[in-house]
Amino acid sequence: MEEPKRTLAYICPKCKQSVVVERSVFRLAAGPDKLPCPCGGSALNVEMEADHADLTVPCAYCGEDHHVRCPVHALLHEKALAFSCKATGLDCLYVGEEDMVFRAVRRLEDAVVQMQEKPGEKGAFLNEIIMEEVLGELKDIAARGGVSCFCGAKDYKVKVLYSSVELSCAHCGAKLRIPAATGEDLEDLCCRYTLTIGGKGDG
């Protein structure tokens, strides 16, 4: 039987290239692991404890390392996990199944290109047009009663970030982040008829 594997990916803050590494579940669970960028300018560090994993993630957006903690089971078995930079709302690390991680990284690379094309020109949003369209789509979905929480509640709050929109349940506090940085983000949202906060969502 083939050993289960996990794919981990981040953008190197030094060379701005994607670093995508495959590790076996056994190797990740066995102890500390370091996943360096080939350029030598950064490295992702993973340390496993009994019930949680501590990750030190290099961030290409704010230049700082982010310290993330998540359950061991989620890190080793969830189909896809995304961790984001608090300063920009952009994802800085993906962990999960290979095809899902590669698809997410391609979208992230598009966002990084946009940031490099307008250095020092930070506006309210990474992409003003995409954000406006995403907010319009969310309004349409909400108007037809398409937003609800996994707990069954219908009341929610909206927080608009630099490159995403965060929906949070007013009842249980669960959250759902909608990327709003690239054309593909908009296309994905346009294909959804409903959104489920705290769940997998529906297409």
Q: Structural class, from helix and strand content?
A: alpha+beta
The chain-level mean pLDDT equals 86
**What percent strand?**
25-35%
Number of helices: 5
* Largest sheet, spatial ordering of strands: 2-1-8-7
Distance between the termini: 33 Å
What is the 3D form? globular
Calculate Rg over CA atoms.
17 Å
Please outline what is shown here.
The protein has five helices and 13 strands. The protein is an alpha+beta fold and 203 residues long. The strands form four sheets. A four-stranded antiparallel β-sheet has the order 2-1-8-7. The chain has a four-stranded antiparallel β-sheet with strand order 3-4-5-6. A three-stranded antiparallel β-sheet has the order 10-11-12, with helices on one face.
